[in-house]
Design goal:
two-stranded antiparallel ribbon, seven-stranded mixed beta sheet, alpha+beta, 4 helices, about 150 residues, globular
Length: about 150
Protein backbone atom coordinates (compact mmCIF):
# COMPACT_ATOMS: atom_id res chain seq x y z
CA UNK A 1 0.00 0.00 0.00
CA UNK A 2 1.33 3.41 -0.93
CA UNK A 3 1.48 6.09 1.75
CA UNK A 4 -0.37 8.53 -0.55
CA UNK A 5 -3.43 6.24 -0.57
CA UNK A 6 -3.46 5.80 3.21
CA UNK A 7 -5.37 9.04 3.77
CA UNK A 8 -7.37 9.12 0.54
CA UNK A 9 -11.15 9.24 0.84
CA UNK A 10 -12.97 7.80 -2.13
CA UNK A 11 -16.44 8.79 -0.92
CA UNK A 12 -15.74 12.26 0.39
CA UNK A 13 -18.91 13.95 1.61
CA UNK A 14 -19.60 17.62 1.11
CA UNK A 15 -18.96 19.41 4.37
CA UNK A 16 -21.17 22.17 5.72
CA UNK A 17 -20.07 25.68 4.97
CA UNK A 18 -19.92 27.40 8.35
CA UNK A 19 -18.79 30.99 8.55
CA UNK A 20 -19.03 33.93 10.86
CA UNK A 21 -20.12 37.39 9.78
CA UNK A 22 -21.05 40.78 11.19
CA UNK A 23 -24.61 40.87 12.61
CA UNK A 24 -25.44 43.78 10.28
CA UNK A 25 -24.12 42.10 7.10
CA UNK A 26 -26.43 41.08 4.28
CA UNK A 27 -26.60 37.27 4.14
CA UNK A 28 -28.26 35.30 1.35
CA UNK A 29 -29.93 32.13 2.59
CA UNK A 30 -32.11 29.92 0.39
CA UNK A 31 -32.27 32.67 -2.21
CA UNK A 32 -33.49 35.39 0.16
CA UNK A 33 -31.25 38.22 1.31
CA UNK A 34 -31.51 38.97 5.02
CA UNK A 35 -30.24 42.39 6.06
CA UNK A 36 -28.54 41.30 9.24
CA UNK A 37 -29.61 39.43 12.35
CA UNK A 38 -32.52 41.78 13.08
CA UNK A 39 -34.01 40.92 9.70
CA UNK A 40 -33.72 37.18 10.45
CA UNK A 41 -35.41 37.80 13.82
CA UNK A 42 -38.22 39.73 12.10
CA UNK A 43 -39.06 36.60 10.05
CA UNK A 44 -39.40 34.24 13.05
CA UNK A 45 -42.72 32.40 12.88
CA UNK A 46 -42.16 29.86 15.66
CA UNK A 47 -40.14 30.22 18.86
CA UNK A 48 -39.26 28.05 21.84
CA UNK A 49 -37.09 28.31 24.92
CA UNK A 50 -34.47 25.57 25.33
CA UNK A 51 -35.77 24.47 28.74
CA UNK A 52 -39.47 24.69 27.95
CA UNK A 53 -41.60 21.57 28.05
CA UNK A 54 -44.41 23.43 26.25
CA UNK A 55 -44.94 23.31 22.51
CA UNK A 56 -43.19 26.06 20.56
CA UNK A 57 -45.23 29.24 20.29
CA UNK A 58 -46.39 30.42 16.91
CA UNK A 59 -45.60 34.04 16.17
CA UNK A 60 -46.81 36.42 13.54
CA UNK A 61 -43.58 37.52 11.83
CA UNK A 62 -43.24 41.26 11.35
CA UNK A 63 -41.76 40.53 7.90
CA UNK A 64 -42.83 37.91 5.40
CA UNK A 65 -40.58 36.35 2.79
CA UNK A 66 -40.05 33.15 0.89
CA UNK A 67 -37.89 31.77 3.73
CA UNK A 68 -39.45 30.65 7.03
CA UNK A 69 -37.57 30.97 10.32
CA UNK A 70 -37.79 29.08 13.61
CA UNK A 71 -35.97 30.17 16.79
CA UNK A 72 -34.71 28.15 19.75
CA UNK A 73 -33.39 30.42 22.50
CA UNK A 74 -32.05 30.32 26.04
CA UNK A 75 -31.71 33.19 28.51
CA UNK A 76 -28.31 34.13 29.85
CA UNK A 77 -27.73 32.77 33.35
CA UNK A 78 -28.60 35.04 36.28
CA UNK A 79 -26.55 34.94 39.47
CA UNK A 80 -27.94 37.77 41.59
CA UNK A 81 -30.88 40.16 41.88
CA UNK A 82 -29.21 42.68 39.58
CA UNK A 83 -28.94 40.04 36.86
CA UNK A 84 -32.63 39.18 37.23
CA UNK A 85 -33.54 42.85 36.87
CA UNK A 86 -31.30 43.82 33.96
CA UNK A 87 -30.16 40.73 32.04
CA UNK A 88 -32.13 40.40 28.81
CA UNK A 89 -29.65 38.69 26.48
CA UNK A 90 -30.36 35.28 25.00
CA UNK A 91 -28.46 32.60 23.10
CA UNK A 92 -30.27 32.16 19.78
CA UNK A 93 -30.43 29.27 17.29
CA UNK A 94 -32.36 29.74 14.04
CA UNK A 95 -33.44 27.21 11.43
CA UNK A 96 -34.44 28.46 8.00
CA UNK A 97 -36.72 26.57 5.62
CA UNK A 98 -38.44 26.99 2.27
CA UNK A 99 -41.62 25.61 3.89
CA UNK A 100 -43.46 26.89 7.00
CA UNK A 101 -41.77 25.88 10.26
CA UNK A 102 -43.46 22.90 11.93
CA UNK A 103 -43.51 21.60 15.49
CA UNK A 104 -41.44 18.68 14.20
CA UNK A 105 -38.77 21.08 12.84
CA UNK A 106 -38.56 22.75 16.24
CA UNK A 107 -38.45 19.42 18.10
CA UNK A 108 -35.57 18.23 15.92
CA UNK A 109 -33.73 21.50 16.56
CA UNK A 110 -34.33 21.19 20.31
CA UNK A 111 -33.00 17.61 20.33
CA UNK A 112 -29.75 18.42 18.52
CA UNK A 113 -26.69 18.07 20.76
CA UNK A 114 -25.99 21.31 22.57
CA UNK A 115 -22.58 22.87 22.74
CA UNK A 116 -21.46 25.74 24.91
CA UNK A 117 -24.09 28.47 25.39
CA UNK A 118 -26.98 26.38 23.99
CA UNK A 119 -25.32 26.30 20.56
CA UNK A 120 -26.86 23.70 18.25
CA UNK A 121 -24.86 24.67 15.15
CA UNK A 122 -21.82 22.44 14.62
CA UNK A 123 -20.09 20.51 11.83
CA UNK A 124 -21.99 17.39 12.94
CA UNK A 125 -25.46 18.88 12.32
CA UNK A 126 -27.37 16.68 9.85
CA UNK A 127 -27.53 18.10 6.33
CA UNK A 128 -31.33 18.28 6.38
CA UNK A 129 -31.24 20.64 9.40
CA UNK A 130 -29.38 23.30 7.41
CA UNK A 131 -29.32 26.21 6.93
CA UNK A 132 -28.92 27.44 10.50
CA UNK A 133 -27.81 30.63 12.21
CA UNK A 134 -26.44 30.99 15.77
CA UNK A 135 -25.96 34.16 17.78
CA UNK A 136 -24.37 34.14 21.22
CA UNK A 137 -26.50 37.10 22.32
CA UNK A 138 -23.63 39.50 22.80
CA UNK A 139 -21.10 40.90 20.38
CA UNK A 140 -21.17 41.76 16.72
CA UNK A 141 -20.83 38.39 14.96
CA UNK A 142 -23.16 35.50 14.17
CA UNK A 143 -22.42 32.04 12.79
CA UNK A 144 -24.14 30.83 9.62
CA UNK A 145 -24.20 27.28 8.26
CA UNK A 146 -25.45 26.53 4.76
Amino acid sequence: MKIGNLFKRDNRQVEHRIFSCFIHDDVEILGQVFHGLQDIQAHVEMSQSVGSSCKPSKREPSKMGKVHVGELWMSYPCFDSSDFLYENRTYQNYILRKHPITFEDMERLRKLPSGMNAQRLSPSVPEDMLPMVYYVGDGDTMMVAI
